[in-house]
Every structure is written in structure tokens, then in C-alpha cells.
Design brief:
By secondary structure, the protein is α/β, with parallel strands linked by helices. The chain has 13 helices and eight strands. The chain has an eight-stranded mixed beta sheet, with helices on both faces. Helix 11 links the parallel strand 7 and strand 8. The chain starts with a helix and ends with a helix.
């Protein structure tokens, strides 16, 4: 069996032509769109593993690009393509309300974290219905890590990969970020609002300086988000887990990755020297970091691809 896996791996490397196809998923609350990358072995009828890629927070599309930035980094696009070159199929999608899935957005007051979790589970069901994959894995990036680990438990996948995922609850992350941007008084007020939301109480008329973050229509989403602690959620997973974190990531720290591993002692922790939040090899210099978020000429970390490919193939081998 090891020879078969090695043959599939070498076949993908020797024949690097990729096939990317658009996929449409109809849901009760609108249509979602995704891209499927299939390696040559999969197109020839051989069963290959597939990784479902979930993007991070905000207006981040299936390719890892945000409408808030002037350029494209294509991080998740390159990630999916490199997996395919290593014989592993990949699937990435525009989240509800983003990119081609924009029309499927529901009213903000009705949005919950569970909405995104259910969508991820629906994509897993789609991949499973195709009956051509030897294993299904989820890789969640940034906020997609939390979404992915909950979906991984519900959907009973073969493995889960956290890419630059937070290890602490969202409310702690928010306060940490606000401390670097706002006055102590506003940070204290933000803490009061968060405490109210955690207890299930909405807050009317937040201060103008905090209104964008805590507007009344988004409070139900925040309340749903605050219910989850990543370090506890990852402990519920029965499947193999890989936690990946870069050392030059300015948004999520190595400490977060270590918190996740503390939550799941069976998980494998992979720290990649010099990799930033958009999976590129960039120094900690702020200017270089900012450029990397909109520079499509930078490839994703080669070590990242090697580590994740090795993880997927090793899980596959253990199952056979």
C-alpha cells in the first residue's frame, strides 16, 4: 500500500497539469460557489484525498483575497493548487455573502457563526456525495479554523488542519486588539459590552467610537461567536489534527497555536519559521508584511505544503 501511495504522489508531481472547475451548491438560503482543484490521478479515476479550505473573517473570498485590500495575495488559491500538485484534491469556496456567493447573504441580524458552520458541513456532504475521494479533510484559515473544527466534528471528516487559527475565545482577541487602538476608557467600555453579550443581553446605542464593532445588528452574531472557545472545541475532535502557525504572523501568534495544542494533546503542532498570516514567507517588518497582503507574485510557503501534504498522506496510509 505504501508503494501505491508513493506512486500516486509521484504521478501528481510528474504530471503537474491542474484542473480547476467551478462548483455550485444550492442551499435553502441561497446559492454558494466554489472551486475544485483535481490532480491528474483523480481525473484518471484513481481515488485521492480532498481538502476543504475555509477562508478567514471579513470579506475574504475563496482565493484568500479581501475587498478591503488594494491587491490580491491569492494565498488560498495557491495553497489549493500546490496541494493538487502533490496529488491531493482541494476545494475552496466563497463564503455566504462573499464573492460570487454574495447574493446568498442573509440579513445581518439573522447571521450566526453557526450559519457558516452549516455551510461548511454542506460542502463536506457534497464532497462525500461525489464518492470519488479516499478521504475528506478540512483546513480552516484564521477564523475559518474555528468554523472548520466545529464542522469537522459534526461532519465526521478524516482529519482537521488549523491554519493560523486563534487559540483563545473571540472576546479575548477583540480586547487584545482594541488595547492597541483605543483609549483605556473605551477598552473598559468594550469589555462591559462584551460581558453583556456573553450573558445573552443585547446593548442599545453603543458609544460612537465602538458602534462599527458593536452595532445592534451584528450583536447576535457576536453572541454566537462568543459561545465557542477554540481550545475547548479542538479537544472534541476524534480525528487526526494538525495545527500550523507561522512565526511572522502579525495577527495570530505562536502562543495561540500552543493553546490549541494544549487543548488537544494528540494534535501535531507545526511552527513554520518566517511564514506570515497569508501563508507567505515574509519577515516581521511591517512594510514587507503590508506588501505581502496584496502581492500575488509571492508563493505560499513551501514548508507549509510539505507539512500538510505529509499529514494528509500519513493519515491516508494509517487508514488503509
Amino acid at each position: 500500500m505504501k508503494k501505491l501511495l508513493l506512486t500516486l504522489f509521484l504521478l501528481a508531481v510528474l504530471l503537474p497539469q491542474l484542473h480547476a472547475g467551478e462548483v455550485v451548491l444550492k442551499t435553502a438560503r441561497g446559492v454558494l460557489y466554489g472551486t475544485q482543484e483535481v490532480p491528474p490521478a483523480g481525473r484518471d479515476g484513481d481515488s485521492v484525498p480532498v481538502v476543504l479550505i475555509i477562508s478567514g473573517s471579513g470579506p475574504t473570498d475563496r482565493d484568500g483575497n479581501s475587498s478591503l485590500l488594494s491587491g490580491k495575495n491569492n494565498s488560498l488559491k495557491y495553497f489549493g493548487e500546490e496541494l493538487a500538485r502533490n496529488g491531493i484534491a482541494s476545494f475552496r469556496y466563497d463564503k455566504r455573502g462573499i464573492g460570487k456567493s454574495a447574493a446568498s447573504m442573509i440579513q445581518e441580524k439573522d447571521l450566526r457563526l453557526e450559519t457558516y458552520i452549516e455551510d461548511a458541513e454542506a460542502w463536506v456532504d457534497f464532497l462525500r456525495s461525489e464518492k470519488k475521494y479516499s478521504g475528506i479533510f478540512i483546513a480552516g484559515h484564521s477564523e475559518g479554523s474555528l468554523i472548520g473544527m466545529i464542522a469537522a466534528r459534526h461532519a465526521d471528516v478524516d482529519g482537521f488542519i488549523s491554519l493560523a487559527g486563534a487559540g483563545r475565545p473571540a472576546q479575548d482577541l477583540i480586547i487584545h486588539q482594541l488595547k492597541h487602538k483605543l483609549s483605556p476608557d473605551l477598552v473598559t467600555e468594550a469589555g462591559r459590552i462584551i460581558d453583556a453579550l456573553k450573558s445573552g443581553k443585547t446593548v442599545k446605542s453603543p458609544p460612537p467610537a465602538l458602534k462599527a464593532l458593536f452595532r445592534e445588528s451584528v450583536q447576535p452574531y457576536l453572541m454566537s461567536w462568543f459561545r465557542y472557545d477554540p481550545a475547548k472545541e479542538i479537544n472534541t475532535l476524534q480525528c487526526p489534527v494538525l495545527i500550523v502557525q507561522g512565526t511572522t504572523d502579525l495577527q495570530v501568534s505562536v502562543d495561540d497555536a500552543e493553546m490549541l495544542q494544549e487543548g488537544n494533546r494528540k494534535a501535531r503542532l507545526c511552527i513554520i519559521e518566517g511564514m506570515n498570516h497569508v501563508l507567505k514567507e515574509v519577515s516581521g517588518d511591517l512594510q514587507q508584511q503590508l506588501v505581502s497582503y496584496g502581492d500575488p507574485s509571492l508563493p505560499v510557503s513551501g514548508e507549509l505544503i510539505r507539512e500538510i501534504s505529509g499529514f494528509v498522506w500519513s493519515v491516508q496510509e494509517d487508514r488503509l
